[in-house]
Amino acid sequence: MKKIMKNSRVIAMAFITVFSLSASAANNPVKDKANAVPAQLSHIGNVEEKPLVLLQVDGDVNQNDFTVAITDNMGQILYKEKFKGESFTKKFLFNTEEIGEATLYFSITCHNTKKTAVYELSNRLQSAVNFAVVKK
């Protein structure tokens, strides 16, 4: 019985490691870094079995006016907020019972450069421990 419990822990840790690394910016290299949206979205853990996602934006004087929007797979806007500032972070906690199997899209738009970065959040085919964060 103890061996089964130990194997379950190893499998759970493997899932956590693999899926937390899926948000790496190396998966989608940006060709034009001067005009790219300086945003990074990552799954940082869970709070009471609800996924916690961190948005980090590191702009500069030329990139200091942003809009963050979260939409579902039907295009319905669930959240939208405008930010003025060169750098900011924001945490989002998602209720997986309300989201279900829906895919969410994070859009971070820089109004100065007219560029948008889109991230896809999905818990399909994932363990209950993690969300997959993929840059589109």
What features would you describe in this structure?
The protein has a single domain (2-135), classed as Immunoglobulin-like. Mean pLDDT is 74; it is low at 1-8, 10-31 and 125-130. Strand 1 (39-47) and strand 2 form a beta hairpin. It is α+β, with helices and mostly antiparallel strands and 136 residues long. The protein contains two helices and eight strands. The termini are far apart. 18% of the residues are buried.
The percentage of residues in β strands lies in 35-45%
The number of domains is 1
Could you say what the CATH topology is called? Immunoglobulin-like
Distance between the terminal alpha carbons, to the nearest Å? 43 Å
Category by helix and strand content: alpha+beta
Q: Report on the biggest sheet.
A: 5 strands, antiparallel
Uncertain residue segments: 1-8, 10-31, 125-130
Outline: globular
Oligomer: single chain
Q: How many DSSP E strands? A: 8
Helix coverage percent of residues?
Answer: 10-25%
Sequence of strands across the biggest β-sheet? 4-3-6-7-8
Give the class-level CATH name: Mainly Beta
Tally of helical segments:
2
Radius of gyration: 17 Å
Mean pLDDT: 74
Order of H and E elements: HEEEEEHEEE
CATH architecture: Sandwich
Structure keywords:
136 residues, alpha+beta, Immunoglobulin-like, 5-stranded antiparallel sheet, 2 helices, 17% helix, globular
Topology readout:
Elements: H1 2-20, E1 39-47, E2 50-58, E3 65-71, E4 77-84, E5 87-93, H2 96-99, E6 104-110, E7 115-122, E8 132-135
Antiparallel strand pairs: 1-2, 2-5, 3-4, 3-6, 6-7, 7-8
